[in-house]
Amino acid sequence: MTLVEKIKGEIKLNKYDIVNIRRYLHENPELSSMEFETSQYLKEKCEEFGFVVEDVPGSTGFTALLDTGRPGKTLGIRTDLDALAIEEDPYNLKEKKKVVSKNPGVSHACGHDSHMTIALMAGKILKDLADEIDGKIYFIFEEAEETGAGIGPMLDHLKDKGLDGVYGNHQSPSLDVGKFSIIEGPAYAGCAGVDFDVIGKGGHGSRPDKAVNPLIATAHIITALNSAWNNQLDLEKPVSLGIGAINGGQAANVICDRANVKGTLRFFDLEEGKKALDLVKNVADLTAKTHGCSVVFNDYTRIVAEPVINDENLAKQVKASLDSLFENPIVDSPKLWISESFYGYSKLCPSIFINFGTRNEEKGQASDLHTGKFDLDERGIDCGLGLAIKFAIDFLKESDK
Predict the structure, then answer these.
(1) The 3-state secondary structure of the chain, one letter per residue
(2) Cα distance between residue 40 and residue 179, in whole Å
(3) Signal peptide location in the record (predicted)?
């Protein structure tokens, strides 16, 4: 029996657990930094499989170690744990979903339940196939990917583990089941937050001259930012500006004393992202002063995530592993403007982050991420699991570092 046949046979043998673990996690989502029951459930499974579990201090995150006892490389396989504050629609785009969140207002609308299932079951199956590998595998269960709160503590925990590579994956509703996107180099954008208050002086709507209206200043700030974006940033290093919320005032005849602006910047060049964030601060401050207002920048106005840059050698290795599993599985994909805390692992060692398809348009499983109707085809999990296992074996086959 070939290795590929063994892997596919193990996935088929463990199908019941794969489906039921994913469905349990989907029905019991928890918000970022509150993944207490999720973490406990996964720890118990890892201990059941015989792994050495270590908590990450100050975090719900943890690691689980599979040690072959033989010298070799050390690989990390990472998953995220958290869900989103999104009410789940019991129907996808066409039909009733198989499982729905039991936690009102919270759902795995980004598919992290599938990522956890892959990491956990890859561990179980790799333990069964341990004769095929040398070295160690750390299964990395990271808290709070959506807010970025878990990556710092996890990196501190892993910095002395001797990792030679970290593998991660994300399901994609834009890729059909069985299809994968593996990008060499820049893959996911970095993100900077924008959150500031424009401070004026409130008053009666009948006498705007006796007030200092922060709404007027805010409107001019937004217009000035659009002009600055076209004239002060490098056109060859694009940065997107997305204003998501402007809040201020409640009544037609009352001039408020404060307005708030929220948004994000996305970029693939970190230095240009920092430059753009400084530009936001400068334009907001100077424009507000022109209108007699001041600006207070809140904590979220900072670099939230750096770009995910895939190691090109690892990308080639993953493609080779994938080609041995499936026929014509790779789909060309542009780099993605969404952000991911996975960027942090490249600070420790070479890292690779891939996308696997969970789209089934016929079954209505095609809604975008972060939507109430989001649903995935569970067959895609089998494909993503197969690649994680095959790449881990291929990566660890050579015992010499």
Answers:
(1) CCHHHHHHHHHHHCHHHHHHHHHHHHHCCCECCCCHHHHHHHHHHHHHCCCEEEECCCCCCEEEEEECCCCCCEEEEEEECCEECCCCCCECCCCECCCCCCCCCCECCCCHHHHHHHHHHHHHHHHHCHHHCCCEEEEEEECCCCCCCCHHHHHHHHCCCCCCEEEEEEEEEEEECCCEECCCEEEECEEEEEEEEEECECEECCCHHHCECHHHHHHHHHHHHHHHHHHHCCCCCCEEEEEEEEECCCCCCEECCEEEEEEEEEECCHHHHHHHHHHHHHHHHHHHHHCCCEEEECCCCCEEECCEEECHHHHHHHHHHHHCCCCCCECCCCCECCCCHHHHHHHCCCEEEEEEEEEEHHHCECCCCCCCCCCCCCHHHHHHHHHHHHHHHHHHCCCCC
(2) 32
(3) none
CB atoms within 10 A of CB 334: 8
Asked if 353 and 342 count as a contact pair (C-beta separation under 8 A), the reply is yes
Q: Which of 203, 183, 160, 234 is nearest to 351 (CA)?
A: 183
Residue 218 φ then ψ, to 5°: -65, -45
Q: Which of 120, 121, 101 is nearest to 31 (CA)?
A: 101
Q: What is the tens place of the pLDDT at every residue in 254-308?
A: 999 999 999 999 999 999 999 999 999 999 999 999 999 999 999 999 999 999 9
Separation of alpha carbons 290 and 302, rounded Å? 24
Q: Hey, how many other C-beta atoms are within 10 angstroms of the C-beta on 140?
A: 25
Q: In what order do the strands lie in the sheet with 74-80?
A: 52-55, 62-67, 136-142, 74-80, 165-176, 351-359, 180-181
How many Cα atoms are found within 13 Å in the side-chain-facing hemisphere of 37?
10
Owner of token pair 């744990």: 81
Cβ(121)–Cβ(49) under 8 Å? no
**pLDDT tens track for 30-49:** 999 999 999 999 999 999 99
